[in-house]
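Hi L.,

You mentioned the student needs an example of a multi-chain input paired with its predicted structure. This one should do, with 228 residues in total across all chains.
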Amino acid sequence: GAGVSQSPSNKVTEKGKDVELRCDPISGHTALYWYRQSLGQGLEFLIYFQGNSAPDKSGLPSDRFSAERTGGSVSTLTIQRTQQEDSAVYLCASTVGNGRTDTQYFGPGTRLTVL
Amino acid sequence: AQKVTQAQTEISVVEKEDVTLDCVYETRDTTYYLFWYKQPPSGELVFLIRRNSFDEQNEISGRYSWNFQKSTSSFNFTITASQVVDSAVYFCALNTGGFKTIFGAGTRLFVKA
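Structure written out for the whole complex:
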């Protein structure tokens, strides 16, 4: 389909392991967001990519979290030395323009469980 | 500071009832955008509506309607004649022109047959 895709859909890992979550935005969308949704909570902003500009990482909760976006398209969110509190659904969204007031199109999310 | 409050954590209704989901926002900006998203059990957020701060006209789309009132900083969402398929978590969100969209905590709606 033409929507935002994320992989894997589910990830179970052991505490201390590293994980990589992938997001494929809608083709042609220039802005990409990562959010975290903990159980029963709203969306917590993590990071924002816009074109070739430096990403805004102000929402990343710790230096164990990092993200990159290669070629202005696919993005990978990496969590190092996972902790149980990292368990959540990680959502990716993309927008056509610079994202400021555009409608965000969300992927299905990756459910991360840290044992 | 910018904030979105959805005071209703969960709402349960019987099919065909009308239901209103409340959203109250805070911002000092005069230009801003408000959104509603639906998150069904499948997990993927679906865009429902976007309104800008200069357009207070209420909007109706089928069984859905939105009441935007700047005087009370509210952007409430009403579902008329609810259906089981409306069961989802609904998020209200605010953007003031920066890249960050602030989401409310969401309201979980259960529609029972």
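You could point out the following to them. The interface with chain A takes residues 33, 35, 37, 42-47, 50, 52, 91, 95, 97-101, 103-106 of chain B (CB under 8 Å). Chain B has a mean pLDDT of 92.

Best wishes,
N.
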